[in-house]
UniProtKB/TrEMBL annotation:
This is alpha-1,2-Mannosidase. It comes from the Eukaryota. Its main location: endoplasmic reticulum. GO terms for cellular component: endoplasmic reticulum quality control compartment; membrane. Its cofactor is Ca(2+). The gene is LOC100826047.
Length: 528
């Protein structure tokens, strides 16, 4: 029997149908803190306050011991200028005169607004406006710099326009947008390749250095569209969105006959290097940005890509509640392992409306969390043991993020209890006098001297929103992969000029997705 035809949902309708929510459907879906879900108002307020305390313990220690450097070393109460190290496994080409870009401050700005601290937010905006520069001889990872710095600046600019400019004594003159545009312009040389796929590394002052590696990841060149697209919409300069869009199109054109993409590739030849792939490291945010780009910009092209990719993932990577890795040419399993980055997937499924599947996977992640106290970076499913070298937990946010999304979609207080467990573990295992330390080995809970900036931009933010989503009642937002909110605006659904993007690409034929969507959501989708 033929599957029923899926009528492509309008972005806003897709969001409403998925019940997401506060993050996307504004006040109508936002939960209050009254305790009407059976959890209890006092208990909710108590947990919210615990998260606030966590955030400021991390933030205040960063400001005291690391600012204006990039990240805090909480055990030694010192700092690391880590922007040039992010994604740099071999620590090659590190700059000698780079003194940081206040990375954690940039990452914290949107969280300060979410927590309601506009005074500290404005202080941060003022300092960055007067001191931050990107004219530095530093080789940085394009993906990391994009999601952390560019995304942080763009989101903070929008929030500054909303919160500072509207105050009687507030003065904001687009300083952060000017910084974002300056940074974005430094990205563009990375896209000057025969394929349009960007180099993974760029020197902020000199562009692509001689003999630069041509290998990059799928996430690295396929997770730029939200930030660079938003920059184009805010500045009127279409070059940023066009570059990211062209790269995404090229990447999708490289998919296998099974509609699967590999994990690493060569930007000059446009050929896959690693054919084994999954939904974890190297690929994760590629899938996330397809559906979020559709919601943010309204282009059917993004929906077509995501829809086909999602069907392929569910067919070839899923094994019950787990997701393994497979060869994109054959669909045959290659690695049976859970990775902490995979924990973002239930959130994406919730965004889509596939809540039952999201809940199933989320509960398995929670079982692993309960077993170890935190979520290990890599767990071998076929052996039921930790990966021998990747036993760490760097304060990652993905499990908390999916917990937030699922609670917003279901209002099941069980997810609030999961949040309690996450908060309890973070305070028990990772809180130290100088901040929050990563875990080097989850089997011993030995700590590592590093507080990642995403702990403030994502982990604390999603946990706070789990118990108090009042920030989301005033505006419709989508969150970037680094947790930075971008507003959903109808004006952003206008297409960029056709001359700015290549035309030699054909959209995939959209099949039915209705069989994967809960029955109570199908009616909403077919009304689009």
């Amino acid at each position: 029997m033929r599957s029923p035809r899926l009528l492509r949902p309008a972005p806003a309708r897709l969001v409403a149908a998925a019940l997401l929510l506060a993050a996307l459907a504004g006040g109508a879906a936002a939960a209050d803190i009254s305790g009407r879900d059976g959890y209890g108002r006092a208990r909710r307020l108590h947990m919210r306050d615990k998260v606030v305390e966590m955030f400021y313990h991390a933030y205040d220690n960063y400001m005291a011991y690391a600012f204006p450097h990039d990240e805090l070393k909480p055990l030694t109460k010192s700092f690391t200028d880590s922007l040039s190290e992010l994604g740099n496994l071999n620590l090659e080409h590190l700059p000698h005169d780079y003194n940081g870009s206040a990375l954690t401050l940039v990452e914290s700005l949107s969280s300060l607004v979410v927590l309601g601290n506009l005074t500290e937010f404005e202080r941060g905006v003022t300092w960055l406006s007067e001191n931050l520069t990107f004219d530095v001889d530093a080789r940085v990872n394009l993906f990391e710099c994009n999601i952390r710095l560019l995304g942080g600046l763009i989101s903070a600019h929008i929030l500054a326009k909303d919160y500072i400019s509207q105050r009687k004594d507030g003065v904001y003159q687009d300083q952060l947008l000017h910084l974002a545009e300056n940074l974005g312009s430094r990205f563009l040389p990375a896209f000057e390749t025969p394929t349009g796929l960007p180099y993974a590394w760029i020197n902020l002052k000199y562009g692509v250095i001689e003999n630069e590696t041509t290998e990059t990841s799928t996430s690295g060149c396929g997770s730029l569209i939200l930030e660079m697209g938003a920059l184009s919409r805010l500045t009127g300069d279409s070059r940023y969105e066009a570059a990211a869009h062209r790269a995404l199109r090229k990447l999708w054109s490289m998919r296998s006959s099974l509609n699967l993409v590999g994990s690493t590739l060569d930007v000059l030849s446009g050929k896959w290097i690693e054919y084994s792939s999954g939904i974890g490291a190297g690929v994760d945010s590629f899938y996330e940005y397809l559906i979020k780009a559709y919601i943010l910009f309204g282009s059917d092209e993004y929906w077509d890509m995501f829809h086909s990719a999602y069907l392929a993932v569910q067919k070839y990577f899923r094994h019950g509640p787990w997701y393994h890795e497979a060869d994109i040419r054959t669909g045959e399993a290659t690695h049976w392992q859970l990775t902490s980055l995979q924990a973002f997937w239930p959130g994406v499924q919730t965004l889509l409306g596939d809540v039952a599947a999201a809940n199933l996977s989320h509960r398995e992640f929670y079982n692993v969390w309960q077993r170890f106290g935190v979520l290990p970076e890599r767990y071998l499913l076929d052996y039921g043991i930790l990966h021998p070298t990747e036993k760490y937990y760097p304060l990652r946010p993905e499990f908390a993020e999916s917990t937030f999304y699922l609670y917003q979609a279901t209002k099941d207080p069980w997810y609030l209890e999961v949040g309690e467990a996450i908060i309890g573990s973070l305070n028990y295992y990772t809180k130290v006098e100088g901040g929050f330390a990563s875990i080097r080995d989850v089997s011993t809970m030995k700590q590592e001297d590093h507080q990642h900036s995403f702990f403030l931009s994502e982990t604390c933010k999603y946990l706070f929103l789990l118990y108090d989503d009042s920030f989301l009642r005033k505006q419709n937002y989508i969150f970037t992969t680094e947790g930075h909110p971008l507003p959903i605006r109808s004006t952003w659904h206008e297409k960029i000029p056709a001359s700015d993007v290549p035309s030699n690409w054909t959209s995939v034929k959209v099949s039915s997705l209705l069989s994967m969507i809960p029955n109570h959501l199908k009616l909403e989708l077919t009304r689009c």
